[in-house]
Amino acid sequence: MANNTSVSPISPISPVMATYGRFPVTLVKGKGSYVWDDQGIKYLDFTSGIATCNLGHVPDVVKAKLEEQLQSLWHCSNLYHIPNQQELAGLLTENSCGAQVFFCNSGAEANEAAIKLARRYAQKIKGTDSFEVVTFQQSFHGRTLATLSATGQEKIQQGFAPLVKGFSYFPFNDIDALNQLDVIKPAAVLLELVQGEGGVIPADTEWVKKLAAICEEKDILLMVDEIQTGIGRTGSLFAYQQYGIEPDVISIAKGLGSGFPIGAIIAKEKAAKAFEPGTHGSTFGGNPLATAAGVATISHIVESDLLNQVNEISIYLDQQLEQLKEKYTFIKNIRGKGLLKGLVMDTDVLNIVKKAIEKQLLILTAGPNVVRILPPLTVTKEEINEFILKLEETFQSIEKGE
Q1: Whole-Å CA distances, 286 to 84, 123, 175, 238, 318
Q2: Residue 251: in which H helix or E strand, if any?
Q3: Cβ contacts of residue 195 below 8 Å, gap of 6+?
Q4: pLDDT tens digits, one per residue of 294-320
Q5: Domains, the chain, ranges and CATH?
């Protein structure tokens, strides 16, 4: 007997896990401040791969270094000396307050290394049983189990209990709360100098200085998460250089490799000596290809006039954004540093980001009510003018209910 039961076709399931709320755009090419999708549509990219492509997409200086390295050696492990790694570590220590560098593959790994270093410093160098790390409300430090535990946002932590113990969350920019450091006696404090994911909120200078003074007095490691603010994003190579402090540990990633995966921590000598052979490691961290990208990126930033350009162009961007704020009442505030900007809105910012894509403009959110703006450090005035025009078109389209 024939079976005439109709069977609905099974919907195809993507082989990629659905861990991202992706926009309906497939990017296939990039150059400078622009990217192109698989339909040939050109977009102005003011996300920079979330503060990663700081020299723009496919910068010639990094491309040349990578092509050269591709012809010689891709990987050899950290059991052997790697010339690019030595050179990049030298560039980072010469241009920071640190003395030694540990290389890894991402920002989360860099913060993992910082947390491990803090615990080992407290227990093996200071001889205490301390392991607590103080972080701050609305912070973001990564997606691994330890770094999401360090993150001061419940929405990032939901569904992953039990969290890694040993983290306390202080209110950000609250001077009075710092008095509790003497009660907790933590191994370290970990903070962002501009909370990126948390809403593009800059740290107050006096608050940071008091925090640094307490850490120095109590021998608490001061660790600064520069994963989003570092590599020139705020107008100096590292944001801490604008605050008159010297962290014991700096975590970096994102812009370090111009889009090639690499992360690192830079530590002062007193903290760095807590790591000995066998105490931490990474198979791929600091491999010849990743550090080739890093050498080219950092060399270009420190040897060129790029940071001065960032400071000049960020003033121009501020001026244009202020003019927008005067025209549109739903823009409540503009905050940030350098080329890390946030527009605080009283409207649905996700809808703004989606509508901007229709205008061939890529921007980001930073929480429910902040539009995050991250152009490459190489952005021009003409490109900022184009950005403002496209953003206005986006606002007007939303106002018309399109």
Answers
A1: 8, 27, 38, 20, 37
A2: strand 249-252
A3: 136, 138, 139, 140, 172, 201, 203
A4: 999 999 999 999 999 999 999 999 999
A5: 27-51+305-399 (3.90.1150.10), 60-303 (3.40.640.10)
